[in-house]
Structures
1.
Amino acid sequence: MRYEAWSIVNEEMDQAKRQSRDALFTIGNGYFGIRGFFEEDGRGISALGGIYSAGVFGKGSYAAWEGDSRELCNLPNALRARIKINGRPAEGPGENGLQESGEAGFFQKLDMKQGIYERRYPYTEEGAKAALAFRRFAVMDERWKNVIGQEIEIRAEEDGLELEVEAAIDGRVTNLNLESCEPLPVQPGRNHITRWETGEQSLHVMLDYKETEIHMCQRARAFAAGRELTGSLTNGEAEAGILFRCRLEKGESFRLEKMIRVTTGKESCPQAELPGYHEAEEAHREAWAKKWILSDIRVDQAENPDALKDQAVLRYNLFQLMAVCPEHTDRLSIGARGLSGEMYEGCVFWDNEIFKLPFFIYTNPGAAAGLLKFRYHTLDAARRHAGRNWFDGAMYPWQASEDGVEQTPYNVGAFYAVHIVSDIAHAVLEYGRVTGDREFYERYGMEILIETARFFASRCDWNGEEGVYEIRAVRGPNEYDVYVNNNAYTNLSAAENLMAAYRAVREREEEAEKRFSIRPGEAEQWKKIAEGLKLPYCKERDLYEEDDAYFKRRELDMKRAKPTGKRIIDSTLPYEALPLYQVTKQADVVLMMAMYPSRFTDKQKRTAYDFYEPRTAHDSSLSYAPHSILAAQIGRTDEAYRYFCRSACLDIEDTQLNTVSGLHFANFGGTWQAVYFGFAGVRFENGALMINPHLPVQWRGLEIAGSFGDVTARIEITGTRVTVKRIGAESRKTDGGGKERPGGQGTAGAGLNVWVEGKHAVLEEDQDMITVERGGESHVAAGCNL
């Protein structure tokens, strides 16, 4: 892999890595996710493509906790291209002239600045020579979110090249994965199309889940030797297309421009509504430019052989987060593998709120609000789930469908994983702390806090012997514990949830009692439980215990248990054996301290890190970033940088050998947190921007941006100073994607309190910049007045 500042490039044609790299080169716009498959490849699994649309599902294969499961549905391949050169099919570089790994000429690139995927290779077959190039994008502009652009160019490298190119929508597809599990998915998967109907360059299909209807139409134009070609329609079984023919002499080129529109329901999509290719591409580029204003992170690196790599892989993580966010609706959220693969069936987990959401809270509050509204819209399903399990309030499911229904298979432990409930409450609170969006809090957030507090009040038990409240039989982030009593992470976040709900009721007591039917003494009971919840802790060691029995377990020889990169449960020990040992699947206490940094002393953080880090198997993509954050906060920047690299490169290097089943979007959010909360040391609390940098030696400086209450700003960090600059007034008034931001944030002229390593400065209302020197007395420099 080759790295450029704004792109990743692969010049190795390796058939063994084809499917993983299809996932790696995924592009999207929140409506679509499009894997980097080869559109001309008409054989085997590669012919199935890999296009997913948010909220479009097919029937699953197992009985879920509530009803039957469903899975993300692979859509008809709307980018299908059948190419013949001198009468012979050109079906991809693995078939024509690039059989061997690493042979010169193959090239694929993801341009993250502009959201465009391109690929090219030379074609040589029985004397026919040509150069083939492909480009595609999912339009980011909100006017055409359901539109895809495709371009194919073929240049003749010798005279007399007879060319045929058919641009089609191919409905003869199945899902890519029958099962998404070790060692690799079994392929191909299920067919979710129950019936189809073709029209003039259009295909209408019915899916087997909720009788979902999908309508696809295309408009294709072709040019050769300076003239536009006339094509002929080529409808076939479950496909619709158009065929172009031409003859090229050496140096002449054929170019295809194709626009595809997809709608759900009975709505058709006439070609007349499709934008022009160049019009759509220009709007797409402009939309991505706006996205990067608050989202980009710039790294100024020292003498470092991985200088370009650090910058590129970091931007890759950020790009994928923006490319998957469904900003067009607040009725959907982001699945664990986004729209890049079928693993976890497109379901939403706790990592959405804890790992992904902070990125959007700081860089695109409008999008963050939409993701939280998804949880509000599924509150009734969470109430039903709580009642079904004999609890009060709202019990959010571990593995949520688009309707908020529990999709976890029965009897695999979703009953115990209750920290998802307080994770959502924490996200509501974090969004409010950073944005100050009172409208969201009053219309949506309060009800979530109250219903989740009611759940925990019914889930907690009083231990009279110890004089504490407990949460028994739970599974914390360490999923290798199966179930335990008093997981520290769960109890602390539940206490935060309960106390926040108590304060919400006390703040507006009369209104809350009427609106939410607060019973006499109910809120006071929440406060009592919150203050009395047990947090396992060893005073002699000043060490927080992961749960109240962790210290009693046997130590585990990690080298023996994990001799390779494979998970323990996939290599050496069965799942049932792990509760015997002090082994943590992924960050648990470490995650708790990274999330609540002000609740613990530096000594407690160091003690916890030293104890749990060697006991953590990192058998989850969620583990590396919290370790990076906490290591940075305690000044161990070498370790922080090492864990940052593992997080940032997880999919690019396919370190867990399962990128083939989709990208790890929570890990992308964790990578952003490792830089933002770890290396930059940024937090926005109580209306103040706090900055405590811990830059690794590999980086000379760092620039980040964000939305902090009523101010959007760029922060420049070096070894000697921190500079906070306002972002232009026009940008400040939007969420980074062109929409007005909720709650009135981003208004020009607002002041901002800034604390840098304990030194206070103020960005006054009429200033656009302040600088604070590090390591000495504070020096505040007034920049240009606005």
2.
Amino acid sequence: MNDTNNDNLRFPEGFLWGTSNAAYQIEGAWDADGKAPSIWDIAIHSGQLPVPEGSDLSVASDEYHRLSEDLDLLGEIGAPVHRFSVSWPRIIIDDQKTTNPAGLDYYDRLVDGLLERGIRPAACLYHWDTPQWLEDRCGGWMGRESVDWFTDFTHIMAQRLGDRVDQWYTMNEPSHPALAGYVAGMFPPMRQEGERGFDAVHNILLAHGMSVRALREENVKGSIGVILAVIGMQPATSNPDDIAAADRASYGIDRMMLDPLLGRGHVPTVRRQVEEDGACRDNDMEIISEPLDVLGVNWYSSLNVASTERAPKFYDAAGVGEHAAGLRQFGGIAAGEDSAVVPAPGHRWWDDHGFRQDTPGGLKRTLEWVHREYPDHPRIIVTENGRGMEHRAGAAHATGHDGGGFYDGVHDLTRIAYLTRSIQDLREIIAGGIDVGGYYIWSSIDNIQWMNGFRERFGLVHVNADSLERERKDSFFWFSKVVESNGACVPSSEEAGNNVAAPFDGDAAGIVIHGVPNARGIGGLMTVDGHHRLRNGLFLRSAGLNFMTPEGRNDLQRLGVRTIVDLRDSWEVTRWPYEVDGIEVLRIPLLAGSNPSDGSTSDFIFSVAAARLSGANGEQTSRMGREILEGTYRNIVDNSGSSIAYILTLLAEGNGPMLIHCTAGKDRTGIVAAVLEAILGVDDESIVSSYAQSAGNLGEAFRKAISSGMLDIPNDTTSDGGVGALAGILASPASLMREMLGRIRSKHCTVAQYCLDNGMTKEHLEQLRSMFLEPID
């Protein structure tokens, strides 16, 4: 929808829409006009860190020399806030406290330029670019002296800009320079101190607290806060071991910052180390927990966490390939030794280098976790949220479409889809009573994404890495409309289906088999890696063989179907209604033990019929049918896994296409298809969307046969506008498919492992992948 006058979708009056960027990533001019080098400058120029192809980290986006042009672009977007960071080594250039006038003048021009365009400046004092002279003098954040230096820097900036800046943030994601820079050694200064590096955690938090005090001493006019990366550790499944592992992992980054900043003291691992080292002194914790006006939260995607005992099964046969090493490496930092970061099931990677996984709904879950765990938190502003996309030199030219793929172009539909989901999350969060006052997109313009350089693009504006020419992306114009309408142009999650599924083609869109109603397959669905689609014509399903005509027999033969697997139980049919020359018919019931005569049936059709005969209305019928159908799904998943694995084994070992059949409802054929799709690497939302759309592809003849030929069930609706009895038969709720996938993973970790545990072999899994996966690159 595009109704910008829909008041129901507007955000609260005064909600702040904004953009973000950071000094090192965007300014360039690394040694211009007296600027001193940062630890990142030295790491790059010394060769400690490789320079990504096509990136000049000394120039970045060159905003230092193109400030007016970039300010004009911000004014064109129309967002009322722009968040930037101040380059510490551009202001204080040595350990003699020498202040650089040219650096101060630059930030004067930046702030004044924003105000001239009606944009509120939001200044972040530290975004990882520690001066190299501070590292040389006292070991950077490992030395307590760094606290005094940062406090002095705060006073200087507050005196210069304090009358004009609307929001002050002391630091951006202090967890990252402390943990990655000193504990693990992944970021400059690349020191691997191990647990002793927790002294850097303490010192950087102490510097934050002193900076807050300094800002208040200087009577700055703006609100004061800090910006944290809150990952939102999610249990990989509903298994109690994974839930406990996610809770433990929350102490790795999320609680490590939130606990001390919000007055709860250091988490145990940090407390033990800093007390042993003498790094924590009297009154330090009181300073660290200085009251804040605002809590900035940066979120991009959540991490899935499992117990270390269960973790290997998430990698075995899961198809994560090159991403596994990165997950294990980062998991050691983020989750600790007694929990493991594992692939989020059924979600796409941002690109084939594995920057992140898409985790829809993660922003909502993360902020709800913050609110639940820290109910007295300050007002939240989402200070970073965005979608990084790879820029392939040569292939991804500035005018290219991303097409749902993984390179960044001007027509960035994938980015818009991601941002849409985030804004939908925020709307629901605010409606639920959580105080969120703003949303800032990362980033206003393509920037140097640290070690990834220009290879990973986040901007609303495209920057040509060679010419530095700026070009507005589709997301630029889209976000301008979001700001103008105060969010009303973004549809509700219900209207948008809460996901942007891959377009279906081939079998998944519904295949025409003359004389066989309601036939569809899985061909055309895209895999999580983004590089394959499933081949057409190999696996089909139908609920219409009861009505097959002679023409249907001919068409099945034309399509090369060699096997039909009938999933019905003996009490559902007294004779086989079809015989086709050259096609083997196998009967593999999935509801063994169910019998309508003794009242134990799990079949939805019979439950609906019984409800109608008892005089139940449409709403009662739907509710009763839903309850019975839930039992059907659990029964199949829990008790028929070996049958499902056997069917897929036959498919892997067979010599031609297979068709599976079940009368009317999609419960049995849908589950078998979903298991197959999951082990082939189709993402969950495409599985669910394809499944839920089945009703829309049913032929009219089949609808009439079900509604009048088999059962006399009117297609009524419930009082709240929900589906009626007939619609319930024709299109089982998508939520049941999600529940079914979750139920499998809770016990078996992955759907692939479910099949292995039920008799398949890894060779069978690989045979199926070889059969179905069709490269699309």
3.
Amino acid sequence: MKQEENERLTRVGKGTPMGEMMRRYWHPICTSAELPEPDCDPLRTRLLGDDFVVFRDTAGKVGVLHELCMHRCASLAIGRVEEGGIRCLYHGWKFAVDGTIMETPNHPDPKFAQRMKAPAFPVVESAGLVWTYIGPKEHQPPFRRFAFEDVPDANRIVLRINVSANFLQLWEGGADTSHVTLLHSNYARPDWALSNGKKGAGVAEDLLVAAFNDTAPKLDIENTGFGFHYAGIRSEPGETSTRRNVRVVPIFLPYGRIIPFRDFSTFVFEVPQDDEHTSTYMIDAGPNMKMDLAERRKRSGLSDAFYRNNNFIASWDDRLAQDRESMRSRESWTGFHGISQEDAIISLSMGPRLDRTLEHLVPADAAVARLRRRLLDSLRLVEEGKPPLAVLHEDMTQMRACDTDWDITRPWQEITPEHRQHFPAEDAETAVNR
């Protein structure tokens, strides 16, 4: 990769190509659980390099405003949330969720409040997430709906993990199927996890299938209207038939993927806070969902030592809290414990923003390369005055991931026929090549 391309792909602030493209989508800005009740404490958060305050008013409505008060620029994140709005501590100016000025105690001129408004942004709260749109008003797209919104609340778990690494490092990790059977050896590679009389790790054992001993899966990739999907095709040892383990994963713009598990799917959004920090939102959902939040945190390795107030807190001060003794005793492949913990650690280990000119890619990285290409395609569309990829697909509920036994003499696309039906590649390709 050229340095210029790396800059285009990883810089997300205002005025950058990626920052301008990203601002054309709706984004999760927090979870509903972070605003647990009306008039609760406001939340200070970042999105695409900008700072915001998010609050829930007395009626339960959520507002997203620029963090700094429009009067003298004190932070509203330390303000009072009361009586239908948020009030700045400095001079008592008070704002509604839509930016309406409710009170200006040090300037009691009603005409002033009527002709001014605080910068506020559209909000949709759905299925445990708070979404906002911070881009140009004239380009505001329809709100996209995902399949996890269609399951009962009891069949859905929502997590936010703030990681000190660029969004692309985390998203590329999620698109990389070969890492699953190596980085996550304790959970997904039976030859390791069950070797020398060991038992499974006790979590994520739904991944322990014989085909996952294949550490070099064949990849087949196809572009779609939402980005692309790929098949990771794995062989069991001594396989002679035409049946294979096929893992179909959708990768959707601007930073999402769906991961298949036995009883549920995980929807993952790698939302950039800025160039060096990411909020990962994971939503588990499915008709057979059985876990609770505590079990999910255990599966992910989000113990208190690594995860506090939604922040992933490992640092090099203590060697990322790696357990080297468990590596020496062959109890752990990585010295870390939990799938999400291992994923976050790997991205952190690359530094806050990776220089991809140092890489040497191999065929197993084909999905990572395609992901970058699709992002660059989308950037080019916006620079040509066109909508970015996938932004106008209002109904995203037909995307799905699948891990199944399949006869590879038949096209793997038949596993998820909805993708070709609802997200034809020619829609996106015509736009890119026009």
